[in-house]
Amino acid sequence: MEDLIDELTRGNVTEVKVILASVVLALAVYQVALAAVSYGKVRLRFLGSGPATWAHRAAGDTILVIAVLVAIACISYYGWEEGGAHAVFGTLLLGALALKVLTVRIGGSSSPLLPWIGVALLALFAATWLTSAGDFLGVGG
Amino acid sequence: MSRRTELMQIAGSLLVALALAAAAIWVVTDHFGPTSTAALEAREDRIDARLDAREDLRKDREDAREERGGDSGGNSGPG
Question: Which of chain A's residues have a Cβ under 8 Å away from the Cβ of B16?
């Protein structure tokens, strides 16, 4: 697995991971804006609730796929041992993602838990990014 | 809202998502600097050329110094 990841990224595992994680974070912030329009908290003339919901789901599916790919690369290439806070946030993030998928499947899109899980997901995406990609880019301090 | 308007709004929202993804990629890769093989090779070539030029200059100076030293040695020696 390690060799496959190395080959796919041409030896730039960290760089590819940082780019994908940054894309995911940008999309996660956009997801919150779409959700606000979808729930009617923000009303825009150029975007209705229905299309916002549809786009939110499409972007969410994309985020899920990329996040899982990054997690697989991260765990199989770097392991858990030296992960520290990043490993903790990453594990919580995967759990929250699984919880959100389950909530949508079981409770439907009108479940009152969804907004809370969504906000928690954004916070976990930000924390996971800051403790890895942010550090790498000199943003995390 | 008509079906056509809805489709336009969905397409617009997805285009914004694509633009955000592209912007994130652009910002991060810009932070990394040149990563293409051609750009890295060109940079290495420039560094090599600069080092060669510096080495040549150093050799020229040494030769000139030796020449001067040799000349003065010949003149002032007990010979």
Answer: 30
